[in-house]
Amino acid sequence: MSNKKQADDAAAAAELDGVPEELLVGGEEGESILDELGKLQQELGSAQQDILYAQAETQNVRRRLEKDIADARAYAVTGFAREILSVADNLARALEAVPAELREDDKLKSLVAGIEATQREIDKIFANHGIARIASVGLPLDPNQHQAMVEVPTADAAPGTIVQEMQAGYMLKDRLLRPAMVMVAKKVD
């Protein structure tokens, strides 16, 4: 006998170790046991596939949950930020309302300085929380960031270009917090 044949016979004998005698002999009982073994192997394969699907689904649920938690943390300040925007708007309006000659008046200098300091502090807090003002004047209208309130006929700007900002818009990280309300140029008739 060749060495290869001896190795093959030894491997076959090792596989048959522990297999009942009736399977080795054959017969009806052996065939029914083989049929049962085949069914069990199919069920095992099916169960293993189900386990893989369940593990994949569990991993997907875990990833979605982690993303939802990260989004909740990142955007938790949304409601508060929307409310505080009106305070920032009012501070800006207060500063715009003070004429240049009154800014130099000794009686009002400290008041104006206090309003400016408050506005700088709000801007700093906005920056710390990922709240940024949307650029608008001179840019083309972007319906994802700007809300056109009025169309103004003008020869100074191309149609569809923002010529004036009526109310500042803001983004919270990559999400729109409030659109900028703007006036848009239209072609002169």
Structure report:
This protein is α+β, with helices and mostly antiparallel strands. It folds into two domains: 21-74; 78-186, Head domain of nucleotide exchange factor GrpE (Nucleotide Exchange Factor Grpe, Chain A, domain 2, Roll), CATH 2.30.22. The chain has six helices and six strands; from the N terminus they run H-H-H-H-H-H-E-E-E-E-E-E. It has a three-stranded antiparallel sheet. Strand 4 and strand 5 (175-178) form a beta hairpin. Helix 4 packs antiparallel against helix 6 (106-128). The longest helix is centred in the first third of the chain and has 47 residues, at 28-74.
List the helices and strands and how they pair.
Blueprint: H1 3-16, H2 21-25, H3 28-74, H4 78-97, H5 100-103, H6 106-128, E1 131-133, E2 146-153, E3 162-167, E4 170-172, E5 175-178, E6 180-186
Parallel strand pairs: 2-6
Antiparallel strand pairs: 1-4, 3-6, 4-5
Helix pairs in contact: 4-6
Summed over residues and divided by their number, the pLDDT gives a mean of 85
Radius of gyration: 38 Å
- Which strand-content bin applies to the residues? 15-25%
How far apart, in Å, are the first and last alpha carbons? Answer: 105 Å
The DSSP helix count reads 6
- Classified in CATH, the superfamily of the largest domain is Head domain of nucleotide exchange factor GrpE
Query: How does the helix and strand content classify structurally?
Result: alpha+beta
Helix coverage percent: 55-70%
Mind telling me the CATH class of the largest domain? Mainly Beta
Number of strands: 6
Strand order of the largest sheet: 1-4-5
For the sheet with most strands, the description reads: 3 strands, antiparallel
Number of domains: 2
| Quaternary organisation of the protein chains | single chain
Which residues form runs of ≥5 with pLDDT under 50? none
The CATH architecture of the largest domain is: Roll
